[in-house]
Amino acid sequence: MITITLMTWKEMLRKRVLMLTFLMTAIFLVAFWFVAGTLGDQTNRLLERFDPSSSQFLIEQYQAGVTILTLGFFFASFVLAFLSIFSSFSVVAGEAEQGVLQALIPRPLSRAGWYMGRWIGYVSMGVLYAAILFVSILVITQIHAAVPRDIGALVRAFLLFAAVVPMLISVSMLGSCFLSTLGNGVFMTMLFGAGWLGGMIGKITSSFRLEEIAAKQLATIAGLMSIVMPADSLQSRMLAELFSLQEMNELVQLNRLTGTLALGPIPSNTFLWYVAGYTLLTFGGGLWLFRRKDL
Question: Do 80 and 126 contact (CB within 8 A), yes or no?
Fold first, then answer.
């Protein structure tokens, strides 16, 4: 299994999708630097009106950091999701079509060992990339504004930010067991898009004043989409943990602050348990299908 994991790392380093991801990440971070700098300069001019020891000064500084971080992680979630999907969507179907599995599986290597080795390889690479992206966004924001300093909040936020990696890879590898390479790529893109759309509907519902009937209908649609694909809901909970929403929301109205990037409904701890079960179920389902797949 360790051999398969190392082989997965080497393969990903050779893949153009990984090179393209790092290239786009560099472009994103450069653009984010200038955006954060612009917003930070505007905040600094605003802060000149307040006494540095006043509560209003701290609130404005906090709001600037929240705005910049929300914007940064909004785009970072897309980059991380697409790396997870497009690194693993062809793992079974693609290698079966190329004859790689037929050459490997007859050797003294169990199907479970191959599948788990691949999964660990993709997940470990994705989590490492998530850590680099997470720290980069925090560092850039700290230079131009301010970031939360609570170590506990930062650790919880990172774990939630990286949790999307094993979840998406589990679903992607499951789909690769019964769909073609192209079909699984389309399926995963549409599935992730549905989850993102559900999150946007939830944000719109919580940010604007709607009639009660319309609000309930939209909330139901958003909830169903989040159940089918919980990636965007994890993002909302991650930001809530990062900003210590329960402690700060009485002082600063974050949803009003971030406008169209509002956090929306914050998932409960029960929903996090659902996400854990969702990941385990899709991982186990993919492993079960692969062990019975006719190669």
Answer: yes
**Rg (Cα) of the chain, in Å, rounded?**
21
Q: Check if the beta carbon of residue 57 is closer than 8 Å to that of residue 50.
A: yes
Query: Rounded distance, CA 137 to CA 66, Å?
Result: 12
* 201-236 pLDDT tens trace: 887 777 666 677 767 888 888 889 999 999 999 998
Rounded CA-CA distance 177/284 in Å is 12
The first and second tokens of residue 105, run together, are 């599986």
| pTM given for the model | 0.87
For the segment 31-40, what is each residue's pLDDT rounded down to a tens digit? 999 988 888 8
Within 8 A by CB and 6+ apart from 171, the residues are 188, 191, 282
Q: Which of 62, 39, 40, 60 is nearest to 49 (CA)?
A: 60
Cα separation of the two ends of the chain: 20
Q: Spell out the residues 6+ positions from residue 176 whose beta carbon is closer than 8 angstroms to its own.
A: 88, 89, 90, 91, 92, 93, 94, 184, 286
Query: DSSP string of 50-69?
Result: S-TTSHHHHHHHHHHHHHHH
Alpha helical stretches, state H, the chain: 2-14, 16-47, 55-88, 93-98, 100-104, 111-144, 151-176, 181-207, 212-228, 231-242, 245-248, 254-258, 269-292
Structure tokens at 238: 């991650």
Tell me: the pLDDT tens digits for 271-291?
999 999 999 999 999 999 888
